[in-house]
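Bumping with the actual sequence this time:
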Amino acid sequence: MPLEHFATPGFGPLTGIGDEAAPDTDGQLAALRRLGWNSVELRNVDGTALADLSPTAFEALARRLADDGFTVVAVASRIGNWSRPVTGDIGPDLAELDVLAERCAALGCRLVRIMSYPNDGLPEGEWADRALARTAVLADRAARAGLVLVHENCAGWAGDRADRALRLLRAVDSPALRLLFDTGNGVPHGYDAPAMLRDLAPYVEHVHIKDAVRLPDGSTAYTLPGEGAAGVAECLRILAAHGYRGALSLEPHLAVRPHEGLTRAGADAADLFVRAGQALDALLKDLADGPE
């Protein structure tokens, strides 16, 4: 049952990163429709990042989304992510942002997910200086394009510590930089997600939903929302208490995990995605019903 059937505390639309359900546009939109959702977060289409689609392919995608009545709530870019260390050239990130500025304008979307650059052997202070400087450059360019960069609690200098995320916001000091909070990233990255969120909630502009458990060998297994150890329900309560009004975007990692090289959804991906969306709906219904 879709979110709009529940009296939830003011959250925005339910949505999801489409390529977690299927590689192609048809499959992505079909999975979202099965959940009763009419918005999408874009990352890859047919295995190609949104910024790398040819003009013809992008035009076809934008036309299809409009014809089918889907809105785009955010774009998950590769800027500053796990594949782009802080010692690399910032050129690809600037080029990607420029392309996304045009494409977001065409899609009516303003949020672009970024990260803050993994280290590559630099001393802590130099890593911090470079990450802060790069993010400031990106935010300035985003502001001029009418975009808002949302930094995720994932890979990079400010990814796994609330104090660093807050320092990043203070140093850049731009309305074009806000935070994206992923409920499931604390498990693989070794921190308590609800504890971090309590410090960051006032600055959160976008939310990813996933859940996970740590296995005895130290690896991570992803679960349906509410069935793992990430504290998803508590994160939702914290967001509600702070008056969060943005989207909740499903990124379950049950079939697609780009950071592990699993980049293309298999035959069962759509069913797993739908099950994860239904589990999120159930958590939201519990939240709306109040404490037991």
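The tokens above came from a reply further down the thread. The longest strand covers residues 148-156.
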